[in-house]
Design goal:
- The chain is mainly α.
- It has one domain.
- It is built from 6 helices and no strands.
- α2 crosses α3 and α5 crosses α6.
């Protein structure tokens, strides 16, 4: 469904459906296609709620404290800006277009994620 949504978004708008890019461009209320972007993002928030009407959603369990979550969020934001995109922009849209830059970016943040989990679980012991 994600692939279908981003495919339709690019066909209808001629723009990549990278979530960080959409959110960033929405900070400028005068940006072109603001309402389309808002509806797309609203759909991302609404979809799990609608899905919950038909089935039981899995319970979300977060084992980290607020300081860890805040630091992680800031690091993801900084990485998204330096990497010129996020997992949806590079991983879903970029790889499907066979973009070498997106394939490289996706490999880098996947490796960083694997390394982080390894260090936290096996070196730090958390």
């Amino acid at each position: 469904m994600i692939g279908l949504a981003v495919g339709l978004f690019v066909l209808a708008n001629g723009r990549i459906a990278g979530i960080s890019g959409l959110i960033g461009s929405m900070m400028k209320f005068s940006s072109e296609g603001w309402s389309e972007k808002a509806l797309f993002l609203f759909g991302l928030l609404l979809a799990p709620l609608l899905w919950g009407v038909f089935t039981v959603l899995p319970e979300i369990e977060i084992r980290a404290g607020w300081p860890t979550l805040i630091i992680a969020g800031l690091l993801v934001g900084v990485g998204t800006r330096y990497g010129s995109g996020c997992t949806s922009g590079h991983g879903v849209c970029g790889i499907s277009r066979l973009s070498a830059r997106s394939i490289t970016a996706t490999m880098c943040f996947m490796f960083a994620g694997f390394a982080t989990v390894y260090v936290i679980r096996h070196v730090v012991g958390a």
